[in-house]
Write a structure and sequence with these properties.
This protein has 427 residues and is an alpha+beta fold. The protein is built from 11 helices and 12 strands. It has helices at residues 6-9, 13-34, 39-43, 53-72, 83-87, 111-130, 136-165, 232-240, 252-261, 298-307, 315-322, and strands at residues 190-193, 196-200, 216-220, 223-226, 269-272, 275-280, 283-286, 355-361, 387-390, 407-409, 418-419, 423-425. β5 and β6 form a beta hairpin.
Length: 427
């Protein structure tokens, strides 16, 4: 459940109008991201961790039908009772569901039927909003649903990129996107972070997921944080120095992962005629050494940091330095769909370009308790075996990024736009 959502508790015509506007905007944005893909593109699942785009369109619709319409619409009847089993993701309290690795086999319902379902649910949710049928709790769930759908907007891009990369034709999602900038990256500088007792976590103003709070105090030793993300050129120097062949740089599980998977470069990098190129949502092109490196696992980020004589930041260190900084970075709204070269800001790329691995395990904050019921499964059940990433990426909707956001993935995961920001202990 969300924390600190005063807008969700407001009532009256102005609040209803704002909810309707936000609902329409988010729903349209998802469909716009899916539009460059054919029905065939939207059907296929390229690996168990990814989902077909058609499934994302359906699952986000199921969320509103199940959690907004079911408890609040008089005489509720689902569009199709079988869709609940097909498009529930992981909510055990709601009931059984189709296995995640087999989502690509769901040729029925068709994409057209999924879009009919979306239109039906949109109409019914808007009727609830316009009719003043959303009590405070339901308004909060609606807001949660919009942020949930924005998460899936990012997954539409990352999952489609992985899918298209498997095609030997290397088709572009959007021709002309992800063009190289032709400019150099600014020098990396070290910014002093505060030591001592600091407060972290969401402060209650505006929307936040429940895992972003409660706000609490932590003790930090003095540290420094890099002014920008690690670039492709800097990462290439690590590779040329035998980075993927030196066991001394790797965690035990990381060294096992590179041997198991045969990693010798970030995901989507390809060596052609002695030069590196990479696959982007705009198609394949030459590597730009000034751009941030991305699509690296936690293991690769950690090994690079060790090679560079630094380390990854904790999520608390990242937050206390990034929170006061101006939002700076490329997001999905820019429609570049690829990390851009850092700008001149003193602290760049804190709210875009690439998610940044931290050395913090994904665990509950002091005082955290998941909500009761099915929505309590939204975040809390995943607090084991994953690492926290901070910031945002070039696939994140701009309004979805904030300094307290806690993204989380397993250490070997690479298909997300995940990059590296260095930290080090103060002298």
């Amino acid at each position: 459940m969300p924390r600190g959502s005063p807008a969700a508790r407001e009532s009256g015509p102005a609040a209803s109008e704002e909810r309707a506007r936000a609902f329409a905007e988010v729903r349209r944005a998802t469909e716009a991201l899916a539009a460059p893909l054919s029905a065939e593109d939207q059907q296929v699942q390229s690996m168990p961790d990814a989902s077909p785009v058609k499934w994302h369109l359906a699952h986000t619709t199921w969320f509103f039908e199940n959690f907004v319409l079911l408890p609040n619409e008089p005489g509720f009847a689902p569009f199709d009772p079988s869709f609940g089993y097909l498009f529930n993701s992981y909510y055990e309290a709601v009931g059984p569901r189709h296995p995640r690795p087999l989502r690509g086999l769901l040729t029925r319902p068709s994409l057209g039927e999924v879009m009919e379902w979306r239109a039906d649910v949109d109409r019914r949710v808007n009727a609830l909003i316009d009719g003043g049928g959303l009590p405070d709790v339901a308004a909060g769930v609606l807001e949660l649903g919009l942020n949930h759908e924005q998460q899936h907007q990012e997954l539409v891009l990352t999952d489609a990129k992985h899918l298209l990369s498997q095609n030997p034709l290397r088709p572009a999602y959007r021709p002309g996107a992800a063009q190289a900038s032709g400019r150099g990256a600014p020098p990396l500088r070290w910014l002093d972070g505060p030591g001592g007792l600091v407060e972290v976590g969401h402060d209650g103003a505006g929307f936040a997921f429940d895992n972003e709070g409660p706000r609490h105090r932590v003790w930090l030793e003095p540290f420094q944080l890099a002014s920008r993300l690690v670039t492709c050129g800097e990462y290439l120097a690590f590779m040329q120095d035998g980075g993927y062949r030196r066991s001394d740089l790797w965690l035990y599980a990381g060294w096992a992962a590179i041997r198991e998977h045969g990693w010798d470069a970030p995901l989507y990098w390809e060596r052609r005629d002695g030069a590196w190129s990479l696959f982007t949502l705009g198609g394949s092109r030459s590597l730009d050494p000034a751009e941030p490196v991305c699509h690296v696992s936690y293991f690769e980020a950690d090994a690079y940091a060790r090679w560079a004589g630094a380390r990854l930041p904790t999520e608390d260190e990242w937050e206390v330095v990034a929170a006061p900084a101006a939002a700076d970075g490329t997001t999905a709204d820019d429609e570049r769909f690829h990390p851009a070269v850092a700008g001149p800001a003193e602290l760049a790329q804190c709210a875009g370009d690439a998610w940044q691995w931290t050395r913090s395990a994904y665990a509950p904050y002091p005082g955290y308790a998941p909500a009761a019921g099915a929505l309590g499964e939204y975040n809390g059940k995943f607090m084991c075996g994953q690492m926290v990433l901070r910031g945002a990426s070039c696939a994140t909707p701009r309004g979805h990024a904030r300094p307290t956001y806690r993204n989380f993935f397993h250490p070997p995961d690479r298909w997300q736009f995940s990059g590296i920001r260095l930290a080090r202990d103060a002298a």
